[in-house]
Amino acid sequence: MHNYLFTYLLLFLLLASCQPSVEELFQAGITSLEAEKYEESIAHFDRLVAKDSSHAAAWNVRGVAFFEQGKWDQAIGSFTKSIELDSLNYKPFFNRGNAWMEKQAYREALIDYNRANGLDFRQSDIYYNRGLSLLGLEMYEDALVDFDKALQANPEQPAVLFNKAKAQLGNNDPLNAIATLNEVIRQDQRNASAYYLLGVTEMSALGNKEKGCTQLKMALSLGYTQAKEWLDEFCEE
Fold it and tell me: How far is residue 197's CA from residue 48's CA, in Å, rounded to a whole number?
């Protein structure tokens, strides 16, 4: 009988020693995430939080894996759990804001970006993404402030400039929007969306048919098919 107990105890100890540690599970989850093996990554983090449910970083990265799969609600749930465990880290607030943005819940996103910014004002991505949420809420002047702050960190950002131009148009400032769109094209000469918006703005705001049609033709040549409607209606001789 004692031999059996000793054997069972030895087997239990061997099995326990073979179980991966929390740190090993975390690193395995990160590795799977970086390899775009999202289900595998989530499985690692699920095992981790079953061992240690207070691991805030694991909940955050688990949320990222759900986000990459387009599972916004599951991502939000995981980010929320991370925030409950560590409310001083900007990352889960920022990540949850991104998930809200995908759901077009701009006000909820804005709240999270504000919290993230309050925790780390040096992160330029927060300014850009918060600018997008403000753009979605049609708060154009505030959006422009954030886009400019993002551009202070790096002026060579066509996506930021493009959305800045959209905010300028929303703010009834077509001249500055045109200047911004021209800067987008200078930085990215194959940006079909910028050519399209520039062409539409030249024609509708300034009545400049020749310039507008030229830009629309460029947009169409780069694959922006919506430009064809404007070209057919306004640029056919």
Answer: 48
**Is the whole model's pTM more than 0.90, yes or no?**
no
Residues 6+ apart with CB under 8 A from 227: 195, 196, 199, 216, 217, 219, 220
For the stretch 123-134, pLDDT in tens is 999 999 999 999
**Same domain for 220 and 111:** no
Phi, psi of 54 (to 5 degrees): -100, 15
Q: Are residues 1 and 116 in the same domain?
A: yes
Rounded CA-CA distance 95/109 in Å is: 9
- DSSP code of 235? I
Give residue-wise pLDDT tens across range 197-210. Answer: 999 999 999 999 99
Q: Which residue has the tokens 């918060």?
A: 130
Rg (CA), the chain: 25
